[in-house]
Each structure stands twice: as structure tokens, then as C-alpha cells.
Amino acid sequence: MLDFRVETFLTVCHTMNFTRAAEQLHITQPAVSQHIRALEEAYGTKLFHYQGKQLGLTESGRLFFRAAVTMRHDALRLREAVRQADARRTLRFGATLTIGEYVMPGPLLRLLEEEPEVRLRMLTANTRELLALLDQGELDFAIVEGYFDKQAYDSLTYCVQPYIPVCAPGYPFVRLVRRLEDLLGERLLVREPGSGTRNVLERELEARNLNVDSFSRVTELGSLNLIKTLVCAGAGVSFFYRPVVQQELEEGRLREIPLEDCAIRHAFTFLWRRGSVFADGYREIFRRLRGLDPFPADG
Questions:
Q1: Helix or strand or coil: residue 92?
Q2: Angstrom distances, CA of residue 54 to CA of 25, 48, 187, 245, 294
Q3: How far, in Å, CA of 99 to CA of 244, rounded?
Q4: Rounded CA gap, 128 and 126, in Å?
Q5: Residues 267-299: pLDDT tens digits?
Q6: What are 99-155's pLDDT values in tens digits?
């Protein structure tokens, strides 16, 4: 069970207000202050400070916050593990849309064949949402394509995939296309803000002092399959990880747009809370999903 004072600390971090934290915890504001003071005395450091009237974390507070989130995650994980000690194993994890739909089917089939009794729960969401659920203890680990705080999570590279521009065969470009900038006159079909797939494109564009709105027309859609369907129909251009469009490329329904100045590759990352006591178990699952040998993987 997580120390009640640590729960108070995490609630204050969430609200950055002692009074609102007290309301959420159904205790008095002096009790909240007492819990925080007890932690500060126990660890010999200040966890919060005020800048004017704004409450903020000290450097020690930020370090304690990262550790406390892991402590809460592991406490919830331990509670489930104890309850299920004599039952079949349950794995709760998250994957971003691309990974969940186009990378995980094979590895999950292999895992189910190796361990028929395992209970799997895979949630598909964007990277930001998955990290929040991981912090809350709702997930054991996640496989993401987006960016994350490397001080908060331990990670292993699951795989590296090419990220390519595509269009329909015979698509009529506004101008001759040789470089990435030559695509700016086209309609770009892209995922919604916050998706890992879009973030990769945004970073590539930022490196060239461009952004998504630099394209003459932009259509935002929340479905990879819908974007593919529209691109196949000639509605515009888009960028995909190669596994997402491999079948369409092989069948001739899409073609890769060759660019002289753009060869993007991006890592899919397997991650969990930094410092978790269950780290060895997560590494073991990583190796099984990857189909690797049983020896420890480098971190």
C-alpha cells in the first residue's frame, strides 16, 4: 500500500494547490500541509516552493515526483500480482494506433501460442494518453511512436521503421517533385494533433522551418485506414510508416514518392516507469514479443 502522505504529495502535484488537493482527498488543508511537511522532514529537503503566488516543485520535488509516480504504479501492480498469484497471468499494456494495428498482430499471436492461458488487455491510444495511463497504474508498459521524458521512463527500442511519403499511382502533382518542399502545393492528409505519426512529420518539417500548415491544403483525420483510402483515391499525399502501407504498395494501389532530401526513420519504443521493481518482468515480455532469446537485453 502506498504511504498516504505520498498520495497527498501526488494530489498536490496534480492540482498545484493545497486547498484543491484537500478537497479531492476529502481532508482538511492543514492536514495536507502536515503530510507534505512530514515528507520534507523525512527526506531532509523542500519539495515545493512559491514563485509569487504560484506553487511549484523544487528540483528535489521533481525528483521525488518521478519516484512517487513509479511507487504508485508498482503498488497497484503488486496488488494485482498478489491477487492473481494462483491465477493465470494478466498483461495490461498500451500501443499507439500504428503499432497496435500493424506491428503487434504477429508478436501477440506468437505470445498467445506460447502461453495460451495468458490474459491480454491492449489499449490503443496516442502516446500522451498512454503515458498518463501508465503513470496512473492502469497499464504495465506501453509501446509508443511518440516522444517521451527519458528521465521518467526506462525504455528499449522495439524496432525502427522507415517513414515514407505516398500517393496514388498517376497522382497529378502541382509541380515536379524532387524535394520535400516540392510537396507543399499538395493536399496533405494527416492524423490529428497529438498523434505520434503526426509528431514525426512535424519534427521533420520544423527542422526546415516549415509546419503542417505550410501545405496548401490540410485534411486532419483520426483514422489511418480512412487516410489510406482517400490517398489511394487520389485525394492528396500523406506520410506513413512502411508497415502501414506495405500491402497497398505491393498491390500497386499506392506508390512511394521518392525524395532526394528526405529519408526518415523512426524508432518504436517499449517503455515502463523508471525504477520499477517489475523491470525484469517487462524486459522478459519485451524479449518474447520481439521473438528474442532468453538472455537479458541491453537497456
A1: strand
A2: 21, 10, 44, 49, 50
A3: 9
A4: 6
A5: 999 999 998 888 999 999 999 999 865 444 433
A6: 999 999 999 999 999 989 888 999 999 888 999 899 888 899 999 988 888 888 999
Supply 208's cell numbers.
526546415
Separation of alpha carbons 32 and 23, rounded Å: 10
Closest CA to 81 of 71, 72, 91: 91
Amino acid identity at 274: R
Which spans in 138-274 are helix H?
196-206, 224-232, 242-251
Cell digits of residue 197: 505519426
140: Cβ–Cβ under 8 A, 6 or more apart, which residues?
A: 77, 91, 92, 93, 272, 278, 282
d(CA 192, CA 199): 10
Q: How far apart are CA 285 and CA 84, in angstroms?
A: 18
Instruction: Tell me the pTM.
Output: 0.71
C-alpha cell at 187: 493536399
33: Cβ–Cβ under 8 A, 6 or more apart, which residues?
A: 18
d(CA 196, CA 96): 7
Q: Rounded CA gap, 21 and 8, in Å?
A: 7
Three-class SS of 244-287: HHHHHHHHCCCEECCCCCCCEEEEEEEEEECCCCCHHHHHHHHH
Helix (H) or strand (E) holding 189: strand 187-190
pLDDT tens for each residue of 59-94: 998 888 888 888 887 777 777 666 665 556 788 999
